[in-house]
Design brief:
- The protein is an alpha/beta fold.
- A hairpin with a 5-residue loop joins strand 2 and strand 3.
Length: 201
C-alpha cells in the first residue's frame, strides 16, 4: 500500500491494513543517506529504528535475517539504523548533524512510527529502504516548494519555482538519476524476495 509521505499517513494506512487482518508490517521505499559512504541506490535493511524523539524501536530479527539471505544478489545491501524526521532534511549540514547524533545510516519519515505501531499491536515489523539523496546532496529549494503533504510534486508549483533558480535544473536531473537507481534496486529486492515478499511462512 502506498501511504503518502510522513508518519501520520503511514500509520493511517497501516491501521487500515491491520483492520483487514494483516499480521505483519513492512516499511518499504526510499530514504535519505546520512552515512557519508552511502551512494544512491544502496539498500538499507534496518537493524533498528529511531523516532524523532530518539526512542529506539526494534525489528523482527528472524524475519529480517530471512530477508537478508534472500537479498544476497543485491549490491551494496547494508544493515544499520534508520532514523525518522518529522520534516524533510534537505541539506548536507543537517544530514551530518543527524548522523553525528544518531549514528544511523539513513533517514525516512515513516519507519519508526510504523515500528511503534507494530509494537503496540503485537505484529512483527521490518524496514527496507533504498537511498536516493546521499549525505552530500542538497534537495533543491524549488522541489521543496512544490511538494504537497503526500510527498507528490506539483508541476504547477515546480515550474514557477524553477524560473528564478536555473541551477536547480541540474540538481533535479541528478536527483532523478538517484531516484532511478533506488527504484531499480528496490525492484531487484522484490524479485529476489518472491511474490509474497517474505511473510514469515
Amino acid at each position: 500500500m502506498v501511504s503518502g509521505m510522513g508518519a501520520a499517513h503511514a500509520v493511517h494506512a497501516a491501521r487500515d491494513l491491520l483492520d483487514r487482518g494483516v499480521t505483519a508490517l513492512m516499511s518499504y521505499g526510499t530514504a535519505a543517506g546520512l552515512a557519508p559512504a552511502l551512494r544512491s541506490g544502496d539498500v538499507i535493511l534496518a537493524d533498528y529504528l529511531l523516532d524523532a524523539q530518539g526512542t529506539r524501536h526494534e525489528i523482527a530479527g528472524a524475519w529480517s535475517q530471512i530477508l537478508e539471505e534472500k537479498l544476497t544478489g543485491v549490491r551494496n545491501l547494508r544493515r544499520g539504523g534508520i532514523c525518522q524526521s518529522d520534516t524533510v532534511i534537505a541539506t548536507p549540514a543537517d544530514k551530518a548533524g543527524l548522523y553525528r547524533r544518531t549514528g544511523c545510516l539513513a533517514l525516512d519519515m515513516e519507519s519508526a512510527a510504523l515500528a511503534a505501531l507494530a509494537g503496540q499491536t503485537g505484529v512483527p515489523f521490518i524496514s527496507l529502504r533504498a537511498v536516493v539523496d546521499t549525505a552530500d546532496m542538497s534537495l533543491p529549494a524549488s522541489l521543496l516548494t512544490a511538494l504537497d503533504e503526500d510527498g507528490n510534486v506539483s508541476l504547477t508549483k515546480l515550474l514557477p519555482a524553477l524560473l528564478p533558480r536555473p541551477a536547480d535544473w541540474l540538481a533535479l536531473v541528478k536527483l532523478a538519476r538517484a531516484f532511478a537507481a533506488a527504484s531499480h534496486n528496490l525492484s531487484r529486492c522484490r524479485q529476489l524476495a518472491g511474490v509474497h515478499f517474505l511473510l514469515q511462512n
